[in-house]
Specification:
Length: 638
């Protein structure tokens, strides 16, 4: 395939190897994003790109009305089968992806129930009521404020309630081998691996609807960014580089409805080998024998409070998200020994990393300006707005640290590299976890010095929000590490104790100050927008000392953007890792974790795309391998 061709309008021949086939499946979703971006670059109508994809999946979509065909919905214990080959716990973003892939091969796998909690209406669509109502403990770094966090719990999990932004990290995240980054998820930026199959039913598109009130703002800021040294403008926001680009949404371009794991991986499936048990909360994985083999799942039926155990013949995959996965592991006896002992939970596997390494993208305090000489409103021939049929939700600028903090970056990097993580980690953190933090610090410090293509971006600026020019800077790579733990005094509580430990590492304050200073330069009298004579309204030009800025940050910092990761990290065990490269939980047999919790360091992008890929990895690449010997090759081609 030549660079620049629109992959979706080509009919490709099947790949020769199973591995390539799997990779192609993984990349379908991304490929569509890319084709849309390519279409914009080469002035090919987005509609053509979208239609080509729709045309290819249409026979399936038409022949299978959603209302009729779905996985068997099990609602009472009596309907459960005696045992299941695979049990996927959690019908969320990754969980539904995995269950779909496993049940694609009817001869090879049998019967997978997905447990989920409180889905009052499994046929329903996005409902705000389908959010967990969770709050963190008081944050010592944030003047003891508590922080609400929302995770989805309907069929579809967080993909059913999320903001639908579709982004990817920069390339370094996905280039193996790397001991502490996502690596090894077999994501590649090789265009050859993309877009050769179009059998996905998940979409990313530019559905239109960019708020006209903020267009002027985008136009003006875009102009300013062009004049700022060192900022690339990749035509394709998914090419793995930092820079300025429009991002698409997980929206079906035809129906303009949310495209999420339920519509992509559950609606329309009618498979005799697929059961879904709802209104059930898993409380424990049964680990048997010396090998701690996962032989079943205990759960509580939320309508009747009845407890049932479902038997697993082959594997259990935990896919309950970065907040509830560490809780479920700990309740099963897999976690930090001291914590489990305190909670009186028999220790099956001492794994200190379970619930450690907790991260989310923090949203910084607002910095706002008034233009006293306002820019002219955009005209219809504005050059920087996306084409009308291709309006996305927004424009972002993802900047490496040398661009965001051209004078501060060496000092920030060297202070991180010199740190002893024990000084900032939660009290009692195990030495293996501290070694993992050190490895992460070293990698982040190295990346803070780089603006090479594909290196990490640090400042994430979502442009165009707010009524006034300015920003709430988002830090793509915070250095503080939180914890998610069972409450030792109440192990029956459905939710864990969540502690962001926000701003406990002073480097995070240094980064936020550097970002606020970036905006002061950008909007100020020496910056590219000087002609508009901006006056700073928040925090105000008088707030300049480190102490004052740190106080402003402490009072306004929000340590989460609904992207929790890292609490069952895919890292080496001696670095505090919880799962290996194939996402198997250390010290167990037949137990994997596949959801956002395995991501060791936050990607420089929103998280859903990476989570889908994790689901694909487990559901298709890893588990399918165990059946290659017994399944005819053609099974994989259908
Ligand atoms: C409000 C919000 C906005 C977001 N915005 C964006 C965005 O714009 N772009 C983006 O890329 N990402 C966004 N994200 C993040 C993204 O959606 C998540 O990273 C991703 O969906 C996580 O997938 P997961 O499979 O790890 O977990 P989930 O999709 O959350 O799935 C976990 C599932 O497990 C179930 N579960 C939990 N505990 C149990 C139990 N004990 N027993 C049985 N079931 C259980 C839950 O009910 C849920 O269904 C947002 C998230 C939220 C919540």
């Amino acid at each position: 395939m030549k660079q620049g061709q629109v992959s979706q309008v080509q009919i490709m021949t099947p790949p020769k190897s199973f591995a390539l086939f799997c990779l192609n499946r993984v990349f379908n979703y991304v490929a569509f994003v890319r084709s849309v971006m390519m279409a914009r670059k080469f002035n090919i109508s987005l509609v053509v790109a979208a239609l080509s994809l729709i045309t290819r999946i249409l026979p399936v979509a038409v022949a299978v009305p959603d209302s009729v065909l779905r996985a068997r919905h099990v609602q009472t214990p009596e309907e459960l089968r005696d045992s299941y080959d695979y049990i996927v716990v959690g019908a969320g973003t990754a969980g539904l992806t995995i269950a779909d892939r496993l049940t694609e091969l009817p001869e090879c796998t049998r019967r997978i129930p997905c447990f989920m909690w409180n889905p009052s209406d499994p046929n329903g669509d996005r409902q705000t009521a389908h959010l967990y109502n969770l709050t963190s403990v008081p944050q010592i770094g944030l003047n003891n404020r508590t922080i609400p966090l929302g995770m989805g719990f309907g069929v579809g999990g967080s993909s059913a309630v999320n903001g639908m932004a579709v982004m990817r990290g920069t390339a370094i995240h996905f280039v193996p081998p790397n001991p502490v980054l996502a690596a090894d998820f077999n994501i590649t930026y090789d265009i050859q691996a993309w877009g050769q199959y179009n059998d996905t039913r998940l979409y990313a598109s530019f559905p239109g609807g960019l708020n006209p009130a903020i267009n002027w703002c985008i136009e003006t800021i875009y102009d300013g960014l062009i004049q700022t040294p060192g900022i690339p403008f990749p035509a394709d926001g998914h090419a793995g580089n930092h820079g300025v680009f429009y991002y698409p949404l997980s929206v079906d371009p035809k129906t303009r409805q949310r495209s999420y794991s339920r519509t992509g991986h559950w609606d329309g499936l009618n498979r005799p080998n697929y059961d879904i048990l709802t209104s059930a909360r898993a409380t424990k994985i049964v680990l048997s024998g010396k090998e701690n083999a996962a032989t079943g799942v205990e759960c509580i039926l939320t309508d009747t409070e009845k407890r049932v155990t479902v038997k697993a013949n082959k594997e259990v995959v935990i896919s309950t998200g970065a907040i509830h996965t560490p809780l479920l592991l700990q309740l099963s006896g897999v976690g930090p020994r001291m914590l489990l002992k305190k909670a009186k939970i028999p220790v099956k596997v001492s794994l200190p990393g379970v619930g450690a390494n907790f991260q989310d993208h923090p949203i910084g305090p607002p910095i706002r300006f008034n233009f006293t000489k306002p820019p002219p409103p955009p005209t219809s021939n504005s050059t920087h707005l996306p084409p009308s049929e291709g309006q996305g939700q927004g424009l972002v600028a993802d900047l490496p640290l040398p661009v965001a903090a051209p004078s501060a970056f060496p000092a920030i990097a060297s202070s991180l590299a010199r740190q002893d993580p024990a000084s900032f980690a939660a009290p009692g953190t195990d030495s293996s976890v501290l070694r993992g933090y050190k490895a992460q610090n070293n990698l982040l410090a190295e990346q803070m010095l780089s603006s090479a293509p594909g290196s990490l971006s640090f400042l994430h600026w979502v442009i165009g929000y707010g009524t006034a020019p300015g920003a709430n800077p988002i830090n793509f790579h915070p250095t503080s590490r939180g914890t998610v733990s069972v409450d030792p005094d109440n192990i029956d509580a459905p939710d864990p104790v969540v502690d962001y430990r926000a701003l406990t590492n002073p480097v995070d304050t240094d980064l936020m100050i550097a970002y606020l200073e970036f905006y002061r330069r950008f909007f100020g009298p020496e910056g590219p927008l000087a002609g508009y004579r901006a006056v700073e309204t928040a925090p105000g030009a008088k707030v300049t000392s480190r102490e004052d800025l740190a106080g402003y940050i402490r009072a306004n910092y929000i340590p989460q953007a609904w992207h929790p990761v890292g609490t069952a990290a895919k890292m080496r065990r001696e670095l505090g890792g919880v799962v290996d490269d194939e996402l198997r939980v250390y010290g167990t047999r037949g137990l994997r974790v596949a959801d956002a919790s395995v991501i060791p360091i936050l990607p420089g992008g929103t998280t859903q795309l990476t989570v889908y890929v994790i689901g694909e990895k487990v559901g298709f690449v890893v588990l399918s391998y165990s059946h290659i010997a017994s399944c005819p090759e053609t099974d994989f081609m259908c």
